[in-house]
Amino acid sequence: MGFKFFLRMAVRNLKSNRKFYGPFMVAAAITAAMFFMMISLLEISFVENNSSLSALITIGGTVIGLFSVIFLIYTNSVIQKTRQKELGLYSVLGLEKKHLVRVMFLENSLVACGSILLGIVGGIVFGYLNFLFINYLMQLPVPMEFAFAPLSVLLTVLVFAGIFTLLFSFNVLRIVRAKPIHLLKESSAGEREPKGSWLIFLAGLLFVGAGYWLSLTTEDIKVFVNLLLAIVLVIIGTYGLFTAGSIIILKLMKRNKKLYYKPGPFISISGMLYRMKAHAVGLANISILSTMVIVAVSTTLSMYVGTEKTLEALSPTEHSVTIISSGQSGELLTEQLGDMQGAVQNYSAERGRQVTDLTLVRMVNLMGSIENNELLQSDYSFTSESWDIRLLPQMDFNQLAGTNLQLADHELGFYSSKDKAAPENLTVWGQTYAVKVIDEIPESLKNYESLYELNMIVMPTVQAIDRLNSLTKEDDFPLNYNASLAFNLNEASQAEDKQYSQELHAFLDRYEADYDFYYRARAEQREEWYIMNGGFLFLGIFLGGLFLIGTILITYFKQISEGMADRERIQIMQKVGLSREMTKKATNAQVLWLFFLPIVVAVIHTIFAFPILNKLLALLGVANITIVLLSIASVALVFMAIYWLIYKATSKVYLDIVE
After folding, report:
1. Spatial distance between the Cα atoms of 608 and 118, rounded to a whole number of angstroms
2. 646 Cβ partners below 8 Å, 6+ apart?
């Protein structure tokens, strides 16, 4: 028997089993396309220029790769079980196991080549079309372009070739270990009641609980690292809860005789219990993908919708000029800022623009901590022990806050963003001051709050801050001032503001030789922020679409495979006397539970993820909690509506099969 014989046999087997291999190839092709499109995002310049985003995309690609392995192993096992009788018959007719292995190798190779090729071509086409559609939908100032990279193609081929090699190894192992008589009987063998492992269940609870704990307790710059760790923990825990916890819960329901021994619950609970071993992984996948859809779209939507609020927080006024000192005293810096103020006012007046809401903020920024009532300076390594500390004179604070804080020479004002008890006395570089607690700071200073513990110290005068500068040690960082001149202009259109900002920017450039400063205009920043946040939203919608496709795919295939597995059982029940209406009601209840359990878990995951997501968004400039809550709620509601449509469509497929 030569190669052509085995090839014809493999092709004939695929054709005769096309109702199984057709959906399997489509499923494999879609997962390959998802993986290809995900890693192709790494080639986009917008992603390349953002290290955090590149890390998230890499993690997303890894998750899709792992999902592909789990999903394809699950679907392959369903197909192979239905083919055991066929393979056993070949053995009885004289084919040796080595011949079966050759046939299966050719089958696997044909399916792998077809799936990978279809996946890459589909990924390229869908990627370009999807980018065109979202660009048209969002009308971004700078459109995003899909990147085709040979490296992405090669990586996709290698990953999925490895997955199909793994599937082939499992299939060969099954054939080698089984006897022909067992192959003939295995496809008709009934499901055994699965065993629920309390160890796996408790481990799942522990992993999910650890992920939730990280989300609830993260308070510092480690928010990004902790978010990634929490994602991994929750994913592992979700698989543990579904594979072991669902079986334990169903067995507890079975022990409730009043509940269990009724026709409807008896059919649905027993059906779910005996099929849960196959259901669990699929349900966990749906739950994880659903969570990813909600999180990916809602977080990027929050960034885009909150752009104006972010701009207002970063730039409380429309214009600001900030001079950065290089060891100058605060008094000298004040003179320089006065010169800059005069230049701006004269330039604006010559062009018919009136300067309004002018404020002056002189501030010293440093990292440090307060221990034993003493301010200690640290480096800028951004550790969890570091505090964000701002020093400013009371004149500037009173101007911004509209208050009349009065400090004696031996006193200072103290504000903490974490509501910690303030010390009665505070020693700063050897000088001890009595502390006056400041309960609230003005909105114009809120933008200085961060994920760190912010401590704002108000000194009596600029000279008091200068004295502290002279007391710093050689190993300390110098206390450099940031002096900002903030102002608005009389009302004009956005186009006129932008034009004026560009002209003023060009005018101020002539002072570069005299001052180390930078000019910031909200009109110029607006376009940059909308481009950046629009890019994030674009990627969020794209990733959400990928995860939604994965959800639909696994749901549809699960319904087909489970419908075929449950069909014979339902028909037996009808033959022994149960009415068609009763079995339909029971199967409907079973489908309803299995569909809405993942979405409930996904919503719970999202609720517990909110604290750490909110902190991450605050780090990215979105500090308005109302926007974040509304974005998550709206995306979750839209997704649940889409999920309901998926449920209606796929449950009809399942019910048509079993009936």
Report:
1. 38
2. 551, 552, 555, 556
**Cα(313)–Cα(319) distance, rounded to whole angstroms?**
13
d(CA 436, CA 146): 57
Alpha-carbon span 560 to 591, nearest angstrom: 12
- Count Cβ neighbours within 10 Å for each residue of 6-41 and write b for 16 or more, e otherwise: bbebbeebbeebeebbebbbbbbbbbbbbbbbbbbb
Average pLDDT, the chain: 75
CA distance 411 to 460: 7
Q: What's the rounded Cα separation, in Å, for the pair 472 and 478?
A: 7
Annotate 391-433 with DSSP letters as a single string.
EEEHHHHHHHHT------TTEEEEEETT-PPPPSEEEETTEEE
pLDDT at 273: 60
Residue burial 261-294, b: 16+ Cβ < 10 Å; e: rest: eeeebbbbbbbbbbbbbbbbbbbbbbbbbbbbbb
More confident residue, 184 or 424: 424
Question: For 504-511, what is the mean pLDDT?
Answer: 78
**What's the pLDDT band for 565 if we cut at 50, 70, 90?**
low
Cα distance between residue 57 and residue 35, in whole Å: 11
Q: How far is CA 315 from CA 116, 163, 231, in A?
A: 50, 51, 34
Residue 105: pLDDT above 50?
yes
Predicted confidence at residue 212, as pLDDT, reads 92
Report how far residue 395's alpha carbon sits from residue 191's, in angstroms, rounded to the nearest whole number: 79
Enter the tokens of residue 283: 């349900």
CA dist 583 and 651 (Å) reads 14
Q: What is the pLDDT of residue 195?
A: 67
Residues 40 and 542: their CA atoms lie apart, in Å, by: 12
Q: Are 35 and 65 in contact (CB under 8 A)?
A: yes
The dihedral formed by the CA atoms of 645, 648, 651 and 657, expressed in degrees to the nearest 10: -120
Q: Can you give the pLDDT at residue 572?
A: 63
The residue ranking higher by pLDDT, 539 or 599, is 599
Judged by phi (left if over 0) then psi (alpha if -120 to 50, else beta), residue 407 lies in beta
With both helix axes pointing from N to C terminus, report the angle between 18-40 and 150-177 in degrees, rounded to the nearest 10: 140
Taking CA atoms, 182 is separated from 9, 104, 178, in Å, by 22, 18, 6
DSSP letter for each residue of 139-197: --SS-------HHHHHHHHHHHHHHHHHHHHHHHHHHHHS-HHHHHHHTTPPPPPPPP-
Beta carbons of 626 and 318 less than 8 angstroms apart: no
Amino acid identity of 425?
A: N
Q: In whole angstroms, give the CA distance from residue 21 to residue 435.
A: 76
Tokens of 504: 């003023």
Helix, strand, or coil here: 459? strand
pTM: 0.69
Coil, helix or strand at residue 373 = coil
Radius of gyration of the chain (CA): 32
- Written as six digits, the tokens of 596 are 């809405």
pLDDT category at 92 given cuts 50, 70, 90 is: low
